[in-house]
Specification:
- There is one protein chain.
- With 289 residues, the chain is mainly α.
- The protein contains twelve helices and four strands; from the N terminus they run ββαααααααααββααα.
- It folds into two domains: 157 residues, Cytochrome Bc1 Complex, Chain D, domain 2 (Orthogonal Bundle); 89 residues, Cytochrome Bc1 Complex, Chain D, domain 2 (Orthogonal Bundle).
- Strands 1-2 form a two-stranded antiparallel sheet. A two-stranded antiparallel ribbon has the order 3-4.
- The chain starts with a strand and ends in a 27-residue tail after the last helix.
C-alpha cells in the first residue's frame, strides 16, 4: 500500500496500521467490559453468571491489551525498518490474537481461523467491518481496509492446513450428548429444524467457498456464537439463515449441540467439501464468495 505525502508516494507498513487500530479497539473493549461488569452485566447480549466468570473475562481482556501494547510498542521502535512486504508479516496483528498461523491462543474467546473456507472468512471480515458482528477490536482493525484487501486476508488464512488438537473430554451427560448428536446429524422434523450437517457437510468440516466447519471449536465458543445469533447480536447478509435457525433453538438445544460438537475429533482430511451434496434447506445470504 502506498501513501501520498507531499506529492510523493511512500510505502505504508500495514502492520503498523493494524496494531494501531486493534490497540485502540482492545482498549475500548476492555473499558466496555469493565463498565458492563460494574453494572452487573457484560455487553448487550451476554451476562457473566458469577464473579469468577467476571474475573476470568477481565483477566483475559487485560492480558490481551497488555500483549497488544507490547507488540505495538515493539513495532513502533522499528520505524526505520523496511515495510513488511510478505502478506503473512503484514497480518501480524491478526495472529497476535488468533495465534501463530491462525491456530488461536484462547479458543473460548478467539476462534481458529486457519483453514476456514475463504468465502466464509471474507464475509465475516465484512460483517465485522460493516456492523453485522460486534467486536470493538475487530471493527477498529478492519474499518480502513478495502474489500480487496479483506479477500487477500481471507485467502491467506484459508490456505493454511494445520493439525487440530484432540477434543476436550465432554462434561455433559449422555442424554445431553445424544440430543446434540440428533440435532446435528438428523435435525428435528417435528419442529421443521434441518440438521446442521445438511448445510455444514456430512463430515461437518464445512463446504467451499463460504460454509464453515463446526468441529475443532470448544463448547463455550459454540454456545456463545449460537446465543449471539439467537439474540440478534450476530447477523449475516440477508436472508440470515443462521439467525432463523438459532432463534428456533431452545437454550437446552444450544447447550446440547455445542457439547456434542466440541466432543468430536476433527478428521485427518478436514478440508471443506468442494460443493454441497444436496440443495441447502434454507436460503442463506453470504454463502457465495
Amino acid at each position: 500500500m502506498m501513501l501520498l505525502q507531499g506529492g510523493r508516494k511512500h510505502p505504508v507498513n500495514m502492520t503498523m496500521i493494524f496494531y494501531s487500530h486493534i490497540f485502540r479497539g482492545v482498549l475500548k473493549t476492555v473499558g466496555g467490559v469493565a463498565a458492563a461488569i460494574a453494572r452487573g452485566k457484560a455487553g448487550t447480549a451476554t451476562r457473566w453468571r458469577d464473579r469468577s466468570q467476571d474475573n476470568r473475562a477481565m483477566r483475559f481482556c487485560f492480558s490481551l491489551a497488555l500483549a497488544l501494547t507490547a507488540s505495538f510498542f515493539m513495532t513502533t521502535t522499528a520505524t526505520n525498518a523496511a515495510p513488511a512486504t510478505d502478506l503473512g508479516e503484514r497480518l501480524a496483528a491478526c495472529t497476535a490474537c488468533h495465534g501463530t498461523e491462525g491456530r488461536t491462543i484462547n479458543a473460548e474467546y478467539l476462534p481458529r481461523i486457519a483453514g476456514k473456507p475463504s468465502g466464509y472468512l471474507y464475509h465475516q471480515l465484512l460483517n465485522f467491518r460493516d456492523g453485522r458482528r460486534h467486536n470493538a477490536a475487530m471493527t477498529h482493525l478492519l474499518q480502513p481496509l478495502s474489500d480487496a484487501y479483506l479477500r487477500d486476508m481471507a485467502a491467506y488464512f484459508s490456505a493454511l492446513d494445520l493439525p487440530y488438537p484432540a477434543p476436550a473430554v465432554p462434561k455433559a451427560s449422555a442424554d445431553v450428548l445424544g440430543r446434540g448428536e440428533a440435532l446435528v446429524l438428523r435435525g428435528d422434523a417435528a419442529r421443521k429444524l434441518p440438521a446442521c450437517a445438511q448445510c455444514h457437510g456430512t463430515p461437518l468440516t464445512g463446504v467451499a467457498p463460504a460454509i464453515p466447519g463446526l468441529l475443532g471449536l470448544p463448547a463455550a465458543y459454540l454456545r456463545a456464537q449460537l446465543g449471539a445469533w439467537r439474540a440478534g447480536q450476530r447477523r449475516a447478509q440477508a436472508p440470515d439463515c443462521m439467525g432463523e435457525m438459532a432463534q428456533a433453538l431452545t437454550p437446552a438445544d444450544i447447550d446440547a449441540v455445542a457439547a456434542w460438537l466440541a466432543a468430536q475429533p476433527v478428521p485427518p482430511h478436514n478440508r471443506p467439501l468442494a460443493a454441497p451434496s444436496a440443495p441447502l434447506p434454507l436460503r442463506c445470504g453470504g454463502v457465495s464468495p
